[in-house]
Structure formats: C-alpha cells, structure tokens
Design brief:
The protein has 72 residues and is an all-beta fold. It has a domain at 1-37. Helix content is 0%, strand content 32%. The strands form three sheets. The protein has a two-stranded antiparallel ribbon. The chain has a two-stranded antiparallel sheet with strand order 2-3. Strands 5-6 form a two-stranded antiparallel sheet. The chain is elongated.
C-alpha cells in the first residue's frame, strides 16, 4: 500500500435524520490521519548437505549488524 494519509468521515442516518463527522484527533489538514509504513529488508539464503538419506543439516547466519530484538 502506498497511501500516505486516510480521510475518514463517519456518517449516521436514521429515518429523515443524518449527521457526519471527522475524527477529532486528525493531525493533517481537513482532519486527515497519516499512514506510516514500517518495513524491514530481508535477504534469505539457505544451504545444506545431505549426509544420509534421511538427514539434512542447514545453517542459518544473521548479519552482525542486525538489530533484531531478543526472542522470548
């Protein structure tokens, strides 16, 4: 998704009555709400050797500069 903002309008209708409002906490012009995109680049590669017909050994190496949170 490449959206940078959303503009919400809440509408209520009942019989001949209706009303509409925008979020009061919108920080952009016309009460828009910013959209933030969080992503992390990922490079994946695997290798391994088969020593026996039913055995597979794989190695996983993380780059030393990775700032991954500890697994809990």
């Amino acid at each position: 998704m490449d959206a940078t903002r959303v503009d919400l309008v809440f509408i209520a209708q009942a019989g001949g009555y209706s009303d509409a409002t925008r979020p009061t906490l919108g920080t952009l012009d016309n009460q828009g709400i910013p959209v933030y995109s969080f992503d992390a680049p990922e490079t994946v590669g695997t290798s391994g050797m088969i020593h026996q017909a039913d055995t597979v050994i794989e190695s996983i190496n993380l780059p030393s500069a990775s700032q991954l949170p500890p697994v809990r």
